[in-house]
Amino acid sequence: MVVPRRNVRPLPEGVPLEHFAMAEPASVAWHAVNRAGSVTGRRILVIGAGPIGLAIVAVLRLRGAGEIVVSDLFPRPLDTARRLGADRTTSPGEPGGEETNVDFDTTFECSGTPAGLSQAVEATRGGGDVVMVGNQRVGDVPFPAARAISKELRISGSWRFQNEFDEVVQALASGQLDLTPIITHIIDWSDYNRAFELASRPSESSKVLLAIGPRHQVDAK
Question: How far apart are the first and last CA of the chain?
Fold first, then answer.
């Protein structure tokens, strides 16, 4: 396989390769947090605890966020969010939780659903920031524009990453950023059908890696 030299990064010895397998999703998360500006001391909501949402939690903790709350439908990714530094987790419709899930300084919408986007607008304080990270479906989607206008929200999109990749590799190499809790399975490449089946079930998996070469095995986390 031949690739342009500018796309290749040397990796330090002594760090397991699976740490760097997370460099691409970590760069997406790093870029999204950059889009929000300073998050130090701020009260943050992350909607959607898929691999990108979970990586955003880790980056927010590294950047000194004051409080991180994560919302998701499934218990397993919420447990992973707490391991990565979330202060509190919640599920939509959780009894007694609605009144405390408002007035966030910044909300990251990572579910890619209209319902998640509406929740983000409603949960963010007036004058706060909503960063849209999750990919909405192609075409028009419902959006509470009047509510966003009356609250004077700053709404921005975040698409992949730009120049953050080298910073992320350094953070992974130094141990400042550890995203291995997001890796739930490492499966031999020849069993790729099982890997894709697992990856399609967010209640059971987060990041599923294919091992090319000597067989690796980790327990589901």
Answer: 33
